[in-house]
Amino acid sequence: MVYRSLLRPILFRLQPETAHHLALKSLSLVKPFIGGPVAPDESTSIKLFGLAFHNPVGLAAGFDKDGVALQELASLGFGHIEAGTVTFYAQPGNPKPRLFRLPQDQALINRAGFNNEGAAAFAQRVRTARPDCVLGVSIGKSKITPLENAINDYLGSFELLYDIADYIAVNVSSPNTPQLRELQQADQLTSLLRALQTRNRELKPTPVPMLVKLSPDLNSNELEMILDVVKKENIDGIIATNTTTSRDNLKTTKQDVAACGEGGLSGRPLKSRSTDIVAQIYRLTDGRIPIIGVGGIFSAEDAWEKICAGASLVQLYTGFIYEGPFVARKINRGLAEIMKREGVSNLQQVIGQKANR
Question: Which neighbouring-strand residues pair with 213?
Fold first, then answer.
């Protein structure tokens, strides 16, 4: 309540990106008052990809692009953190302003464009400051790299990051890098994932788990084609979903939305669409490919809905901005309460139970 009534109004008076950087820097100051990581709970902990997740709630890519506050973020109760998106070349991202709030919709619009210090700098920093939870690293294409050279660009990042990441997320779905979403086309995606998996097997006796992050704007045929590729290339999991370019059914006026310009929309308006995609993937794969559900998660009920639709884990970003630093702990406590109410002893019992409805 303190965050919503006191801290959030102060932060929301600042430009969104300024508030974001201030929050990252402030985490190191408040860490002594937060306590250590949340102890694992057998009922909500889960093993996936050969990794032990203490709880199902993760922080989505985009919040800590350069790995500057991973230990502090882990202390907030997240079971995993997905850092990045990281690119092979350091890049400033798109011109500012590039992050916008839509408070009436509990949403954000961003067109950051993978602003980050590059894969080499990220790897060096993380080697000295790993978080006390599962660490995923999202990799994307550098803006200066032509699409025809995308594979080598991703491989360059992968080779720098594979030994410090618990899993690698291949981001081919951000709407903010020109042509990036073309990599979701079957032929392009096959070539990219095959090259990454080949190098993965060459570099490690036990390959790093590889996941793919998909767009919510795919139609059913596109999604089916992508899932065929994912199966053939033995990809370990799917992250569903990234932000959307849709602006449908918003409470914010069309003029105010238009003033934000292009970018990916996240938060509450994405909830239903991302949940539908999760359920589709679960059905189309018979639940055999683990899914991380992302989009519109603000509460334990939202997380429960994603899990029942087919997600083994969930991630949030916009919910973290609106609900505050203790949202992960709140969601985990809430999930335990829902499980008790529903007579469920382990979250894995309900994964996908409503995917066919």
Answer: 171, 239
pLDDT at 343 over 90: yes
* Active-site entry in 138, 142, 157, 174: 174
The structure tokens listed for 5 are 């009534």
Q: Which residues of 43-75 are buried (b: 16+ CB within 10 A; e: fewer)?
A: bbbbebbeeebbbbbbbbbbbbbbbbbbbbbbb
In a domain, 209, yes or no: yes
Percent of the chain scoring above 70 in pLDDT: 96
Question: What's the domain count of the chain?
Answer: 1
Residue of 225, 214, 353 lying closest to 273 (CA atoms): 214
357 confidence band (pLDDT: 50, 70, 90): low
**In-domain check, residue 356:** no
Task: Please indicate whether residue 220 is annotated as part of the active site.
Answer: no
Phi/psi of residue 131, each to 5°? -80, 160
Q: Is 345 exposed, middle or buried (0-12, 13-18, 19+ CB in 10 A)?
A: exposed
Per-residue pLDDT of 168-187, as tens digits, reads 999 999 999 999 999 999 99
Residue 81: which of 34, 137, 35, 40 has the closest Cα? 137
Statement: residue 37 has pLDDT above 80: no
Distance CA 83, CA 61 (A): 5
User: 220-232 and 186-203 helices cross at what angle (nearest 10)?
Assistant: 30
Which residues span the domain enclosing 122? 2-349
Q: Is residue 8 part of a domain?
A: yes
Query: Concatenated DSSP letters for 70-115?
Result: HHHHHTTT-SEEEEEEE-SS-B--SPSP-EEEEGGGTEEEE-----
- pLDDT for 31 equals 63
- Which residue, 21, 40, 49, 62, is CA-closest to 207? 49
CATH of the domain at 331: 3.20.20.70
Q: Is residue 210 part of a domain?
A: yes
Residues 70-81, mean pLDDT to the nearest whole number: 95
